[in-house]
Write a structure and sequence with these properties.
The structure holds 3 protein chains of 3 kinds. Chain A has helices spanning 37-47, 82-93, 117-122, 168-178; strands at 13-14, 18-21, 26-31, 57-60, 63-69, 72-77, 99-102, 107-113, 139-144, 147-155, 158-164. Chain A is of the alpha+beta class. Chain A has 2 domains: 13-23 and 105-178, 2-Layer Sandwich (Gyrase A, domain 2); 26-104, Heterotetrameric sarcosine oxidase (Alpha-Beta Plaits, 2-Layer Sandwich), CATH 3.30.70.1520. In chain A, the strands form 2 sheets. A 6-stranded antiparallel β-sheet of chain A has the order 1-2-8-11-10-9. Chain A has a 5-stranded antiparallel β-sheet with strand order 4-5-6-3-7, covered by helices on one side. In chain A, strand 1 (13-14) and strand 2 (18-21) form a beta hairpin. Among the domains of chain B are: 1-155, Ubiquitin-like (UB roll) (Roll); 162-291 and 421-488, 3-Layer(bba) Sandwich (FAD/NAD(P)-binding domain); 677-768, Alpha-Beta Plaits (2-Layer Sandwich); 907-1006, Elongation Factor Tu (Ef-tu), domain 3, CATH 2.40.30.110. The chains are: A alpha+beta, B alpha+beta, C alpha+beta. Chains in contact: A-B, A-C, B-C.
Chain lengths: 188, 1007, 124
């Protein structure tokens, strides 16, 4: 069986923040009414995480569950565990009106870390990244320059960002420019 | 360097020097100088030529209101025209050149326009260049274009970088003068998140400059000490940020403010972006933008050496520059006396004050006379003498017609016509202004502010911007403004102590708009209102005589306030002259609209990071690098890049396309089809939903099979097409065109969310999860069977079927579909394995003659088969019926999106253009997009058009040109010969034929 | 540039995260419709200088369609609500009425959604 390859290598960039493509990650998109008991139970059973509230994201180890919309979740896990998790979820959900899809290959994750990571993000997204407003446990889909991005804090000074695979290079170049040497904002 | 006055120069470091050049001449200034102050220190008053008459012009102001001191700065990739000398900080090696003259600044042929000024009045262009009509294109327009515009555009790409910053803040204070700092303090003490921005590098604004005596204190501190104290307090508050060199450029709806930070203009060798455009969302905005002094209107007021009174003292106090030795102060208010006092204290040889007002008493006048400075009341300047520099001043009675009383030598005229609050930012988003008769100024009308999302005002003005010219009033009002803004966002406001400032006794300003009051036409014709655009009092009067009574019309007819300074100095004077000519009050005339930005901002800042490789996202498939390495000639398809063809050595692009087509038809071709949209549609109502979305029936599609479907918009026109795959009873995979994936996904979500929200369907766009590879040609099955795994026998996987399975070690889904008419499979694997599968196929296919092919070969092969292409045969006005696709339109379905529209009279009209094949009689390739014409002409005198070419190619398979087109009654005219208009104005002949040119029975794809 | 609150994900969204969708609460006319009704459905759109009920989609965010009631002259926003309803909610109509007492939801006599049936149409 062939293995998947991420679109970018392991090259990282260090400017006023460190920009790093994170390689292959396991991602599962789940559609379904998040209010229903059966969906919450299935997620709990497979991920051992309760469905978070609006725009919440919860991680335990490498496993995570993120709220995307009232009928959509994004599940995070190791890449090699995805197929089994998808099968298990589909099994548990049975004939209920839900949709479970592997989306690992269609998306790419970057990390932006360092004390100036908030500044780098604030150069690209129309989102309040001030420390009191954008906090751990939040996940936000928004616009990053000209592409869609999903953003959360994985550590207090590290953002993780998901973008579509086809624009991986654009996103990497974008983040590198935003983190370029001498571009400190000195705001937070 | 002989002009610096030792005890002044608060912004300068006089212990060090900075070298720069002006028009190639090496000059020296100090760190802290602006380009303007350094030029003045070198006695360079003449800095440019006016736009229309090319008159010599000097520096008038010391801030962003400057109309004349515009320069081309730097060179090469960093050259930039029209930069303001008054806001450009001097740096080592700065190169400046003056503009709008030939051959030189000192000697300009264009000045002949000035002698002809009697013949170049307002509206000259409109009147002169209109007849004869035929002259416009070849005579007038080139002439006007040559003389239009100030400065030259740069010739190289900008080598600097730029960026945005999105910021959300409670209270934004624009302006770091005393009022802004005071307002920020009271807002911050209530707990608000506050950002204070200041356009200049320095804090404190005018107050520090204007504090002339030891008695001018705030609390028990000097003005400078007070500014430093409040700055320290603000810097120590965690909820406050301060940014200098950051200008409030624009205020828009819902608290959206643009601020323009000049990060490295003052230090071009520093790393980092040159400019940063702050895109701020503020709950409340406080405009503490100060006020701008007005020039006075008298003959010769544009001669170099005539300056604003406040600028004269700015250059002295801030930059230690004595701009001249013999100064006449011309004023109608008390404030200009400060200039006289400071000049005298600095040792000016002579200072004389002319005051339009009658004899009066005020503190500043007393202080002036105490220094033995002569003050004349009821006097005005009749005319300033000199050409490139003020030589003398002729004085008259203010109320007369200009009879000369005396003439005195002078090298500087310091004029003050009063102060105008800087209302621009208040007004950008709809704040209204009213005329204050007492202070003769337009000030913000507090009860008509710009309104935010909650219907309440979100902008306030503080300090001089609100018309508070007295220091104590300013401090009181600014403090209260900060508190009110905090209170408006729901904060509890604490009592903030307001420091005490001494009050001066004052005599009110006398609004006079022309000196002398009854100046004759000759004087008026030399009295400038707009310095940069050369608008004089007589131009405005002429506009009124010619019927331009609205202020907006007058502005455009005379070009008043339309230059790069946007009338910062000329606006009020122009309004006043217009009102006078119309015999009405300024209030009744109203003002023109203030539009953003406050002063010009760089194109780079507007573009931000979106340039070069980041201009637009480029979408790449998993095999992108392979294509790149194998000669791909790229074609943009939406944001995707697809190989147009793979060019080999010693081969043209056309030859490459021909090779790819022949090889695919005869052997084996490989196509990267990953960009095709892939949408999963799942749920109990999925089949019913697709029956509504597609014109044909999808609910009857058996699991395991594929069906070509057409999708229309509600107005009946063909929108997208693609192969629909039934994955299971309740789930489908819908292929879309490359450009259509996002659009069709949105289309589906829109109908599901806003019309049929009770239907149980989920849609997901999984386009990028899969790499999809077309394996096409007579040897297609052989190469796949060589890989091993799925058997792919013709009866197991017939045409228009699909299977999941294993293929050469890949878990793959294989669709047997064809867009070329050949035996063809499309193989989907997870995107991360796409390159691996592609390489595997290239290797395995070698013995079968495998070659990749690009989009052009794809296009030609589909055209040979008469398959339509969205975007070629369709343009948003074409129905499936127009394309003879009735076989794909269900007659059984009661409804689908577009069905009702397709029954409209217009849509079923027999005269609609319909799809046919076309062949030129000589075998040549017809021109793309060409029209078919027939005898006669239409009402516009054009040839009667009866159709157009939609796709046209050279077919290597058939060895001749083939085309498709839409023709009126086309399918009923099979065999007819039509005239096709070509670009050269001639006609070619083409015959209407069956659009299926190749393998009409579709046998090749079905083996 | 507007900011609108997305009723699904709670984000106060910058306009650049959104896409506009024109007049809200149009009633679809299908194959049985008269020529006049269908023409009106396809082409006739309100474009008031004043209070407007319009569609938006949080395209860069949660992807959901919602409606906004907004004054096109002052850009005051009276509220946003999910798209799965045929009428603006009563409380939004009331807040419009406070500012514009003469304003009424549509001329064709359809009233604001009353509180009693507002709960029946939620997200599916």
């Amino acid at each position: 069986m062939s293995d998947s390859v991420a679109p970018l290598g392991t090259e990282t960039f260090v400017g006023i923040a460190e920009i790093k493509p994170l390689g292959l990650q396991g991602l599962i998109a789940v559609r379904g009414d998040l209010q229903t008991q059966f969906l919450g139970d299935a997620i709990k059973q497979v991920m051992n995480i309760a469905i978070p509230g609006v725009r919440g994201v919860v991680f335990t180890g490498n496993d995570g569950v993120g709220w995307i919309s009232p009928d959509e979740l994004l599940l995070f896990c190791d890449h090699e565990k995805v197929a089994a998790r998808v099968d298990e979820l589909r099994e548990l959900l049975g004939d209920r009106h839900t949709l479970v899809l592997t989306v690992s290959d269609e998306r790419v994750i970057f990390s932006v870390s360092g004390v100036r990571s908030r500044e780098v993000m604030a150069k690209l997204c129309p989102v309040d990244f001030s420390p009191t407003e954008f906090t751990s446990g939040m996940i936000r889909r928004t616009r990053m320059a000209q592409i869609a991005a999903t953003i959360w804090l994985s550590k207090h000074d590290t953002f993780e960002i998901i973008v579509m695979r086809s624009v991986a290079q654009y996103a990497f170049d974008l983040l590198r420019v935003a983190a370029s040497e001498g571009s400190e904002v000195d705001l937070w | 360097m002989n002009k610096r006055v030792l005890q002044f120069g608060r912004l300068l470091d006089q212990s060090r020097t900075v070298s720069f050049s002006f028009n190639g001449k090496k000059l020296v200034g100090h760190p802290g100088d602006t380009l303007a102050s350094a030029l003045l220190a070198n006695d360079q008053h003449l800095v440019g030529r006016s736009f229309k008459y090319h008159r010599p012009r000097g520096i008038v102001a010391a801030g962003p209101e400057e109309p004349n001191a515009l320069f081309g700065l730097n060179r090469g990739a960093r050259f930039e025209p029209n930069q303001l000398g008054t806001t450009t900080e001097l740096f080592e090696g700065l190169e400046a050149c003056s503009q709008n003259h030939w051959p030189s600044l000192e000697c300009d042929f264009g000045e002949v326009n000035s002698l002809l000024s009697r013949f170049l009045p307002a509206g000259f262009y409109y009147k002169t260049f209109i007849h004869p009509r035929a002259f416009w294109k070849h005579v007038y327009e080139p002439l006007i274009r040559r003389s239009a515009g100030l400065g030259r555009p740069p010739s190289e790409p900008d080598s600097d970088t730029y960026e945005y910053l999105y910021l959300f803040i409670d209270i934004l204070v624009i302006g770091g003068g005393i009022a802004g700092l005071q307002a920020a303090k009271s807002a911050a003490q209530a707990g608000a998140r506050v950002l204070v921005i200041e356009q200049s590098p320095h804090w404190g604004g005018r107050t520090v400059v204007d504090a002339t005596t030891a008695a001018d204190t705030i609390g028990d501190l000097s003005a400078e000490q007070y500014v430093n104290q409040i700055l320290n307090e603000l810097r120590n508050m965690p909820n406050v940020a301060l940014r200098n060199r950051t200008m409030g450029a624009a205020v828009y709806d819902h608290g959206y403010v643009l601020a323009y930070e000049r990060c490295t203009d003052h230090d071009p060798v520093a790393a980092g972006p040159r400019h940063r455009l702050w895109r701020i969302r503020a709950a409340q905005v406080i405009c503490a933008t100060g006020a701008i002094e007005r020039p006075m209107t008298f003959a010769g007021n544009d001669i170099p050496g005539v300056m604003l009174a406040s600028a004269v003292r700015d250059y002295l106090v801030n930059y230690a520059v004595m701009v001249g030795h013999h100064t006449v102060v011309m004023t109608n208010n008390d404030d200009a006396y400060v200039t006289a006092i400071l000049l005298k204290k600095a040792g000016a040889a002579s200072v004389r004050v002319l005051d339009t007002r009658a004899q009066h008493e005020s503190d500043l006048k007393t202080a002036t006379e105490a220094l033995s400075i002569p003050v004349s009341h009821g006097r005005a300047i009749a005319r300033v003498m000199g050409r490139k520099r003020v030589k003398s001043v002729k004085i008259c009675d203010v109320s007369g017609t200009g009879g000369i009383i005396e003439e005195i030598p002078a090298d500087i005229v310091a004029m003050s016509g009063g102060w105008s609050p800087t209302l621009h930012l208040w007004s950008h988003c709809g704040g209204k202004a009213e005329w204050d008769f007492r202070q003769a100024m337009l000030r913000p009308k507090a009860d008509c502010p710009p309104v935010g999302a909650d219907g309440r005002g979100f902008v306030r003005c503080a300090g001089a911007a609100n018309g508070e010219l007295d220091l104590q009033d300013c401090l009181n009002q600014a403090t209260e403004t900060g508190s009110r803004a905090a209170s408006d966002i729901g904060l509890n406001v604490a009592e903030v102590e307001v420091p005490v400032a001494p009050r001066r006794s004052e005599t009110a300003i006398q609004p006079v708009w022309q000196l002398p009051a009854h100046a004759d036409h000759d004087l008026q014709a030399k009295s400038w209102i707009d310095f940069q655009n050369d608008v004089k009092v007589t131009d405005i009067q002429l506009a009124v005589r010619e019927g331009f009574e609205s202020v907006e019309h007058t502005k455009r007819y005379t070009t008043l306030g339309m230059a790069t300074d946007q009338g910062k100095l000329s606006n009020i004077n122009g309004l006043a002259v217009l009102s006078g000519s119309l015999n009405q009050s300024i209030d009744a005339t109203g003002t023109t609209t203030f539009r953003p930005p406050y002063t010009p901002i760089s194109m780079g800042a507007i573009a931000g990071e979106a340039r070069a490789n980041l201009f637009q996202p480029v979408r790449c498939t998993p095999m992108h690098q392979w294509h790149q390495d194998h000669g791909a000639v790229w074609e943009p398809v939406g944001q995707w890049r697809r190989p147009f063809t793979y060019q080999q050595k010693n081969e043209s692009v056309d030859e490459a396309v021909v090779r790819e087509i022949k090889n695919t038809r005869e052997n084996l071709g490989l196509l990267d089809a990953s960009t095709l949209g892939k949408l999963i549609v799942k749920g109990p109502d999925a089949a019913r939903f697709l029956d509504m979305l597609y014109t044909n029936m999808m609910s009857s599609l058996p699991v395991g099979r594929c069906r070509y479907g057409l999708m229309c918009s509600e107005n009946g026109f063909l929108m997208d097409d693609g192969v629909v795959v039934r994955l299971s009873e309740d789930s489908f995979l819908c292929h879309t065109t490359t450009g259509g994936a996002d659009h069709v996904h949105r289309h589906m979500e829109e109908w599901l969310q806003t019309e049929w929200w009770d239907w149980q369907v989920y849609v997901a766009n999984i386009t990028e999860q899969y790499a999809q590879i077309g394996v096409v040609g007579p040897n297609a099955r052989k190469v796949l069977q060589k890989l091993g795994g799925m058997t792919l026998a013709a009866d197991e996987l017939p045409f228009m079927a699909w299977q999941d399975g294993e293929l050469g070690g890949f878990r793959a889904r294989v669709y047997r579909i064809s867009f070329s008419g050949e035996l063809s499979y499309e193989i989907a694997v997870p995107a991360g394995q796409g390159l691996s599968l592609w390489s595997t196929l290239i290797e395995a296919g070698e013995e079968f003659g495998i070659m990749p092919y690009g989009t052009e070969a794809l296009h030609v092969m589909r055209a040979e088969k008469g398959f339509i292409m969205i975007g070629d045969e369709t343009d948003g006005t074409v129905t499936p019926q127009d394309l003879n696709l009735n076989w794909a339109i269900s007659k059984k379905k009661k409804d689908y999106i577009g069905k009702r529209a397709q029954q409209r009279d217009y849509m079923v009209h027999a005269d609609r253009w319909r799809l046919v094949g076309l062949e030129s009689l000589d075998g040549s390739v017809l021109p793309e997009g060409a029209y078919m014409v027939e005898d006669g002409r239409n009402a516009l005198g054009q040839e009667n058009m009866i159709g157009r070419v939609t796709s046209t190619y050279y077919s290597p398979t058939l060895g001749k040109g083939i085309a498709m087109g839409l023709v009126r009654h086309g399918p009923d005219r099979m065999g007819d010969v039509l005239l096709v208009a070509d670009l050269e104005g001639g006609h070619r002949k083409a015959r209407i034929v069956n659009p299926i040119f190749y393998d009409r029975e579709h046998t090749k794809q079905n083996v | 540039m507007l900011m609108l609150s997305c009723p699904y994900c709670g984000v106060m969204a910058d306009e650049t995260e959104l896409m506009p969708g024109g007049e809200a609460h149009l009633r679809r006319h299908g194959p049985e419709a008269s020529a006049e009704d269908f023409k009106s459905y396809l082409f006739d759109r309100k474009n008031p200088k004043g209070v407007h009920v319009e569609r938006w989609v949080h395209s860069y965010g949660c992807g959901k369609w919602f409606h906004a009631v907004r004054c096109t002259r002052t850009l005051e926003v009276f509220g946003t609500y999910p798209a799965q309803t045929h009428r603006p909610p009563e409380e939004i109509c009331q807040s419009v009425a406070q500012r514009y007492p003469d304003w009424q939801w549509r001329d064709d006599g359809e009233d604001c959604e009353t509180n009693s049936d507002s709960s029946s149409e939620g997200e599916t």
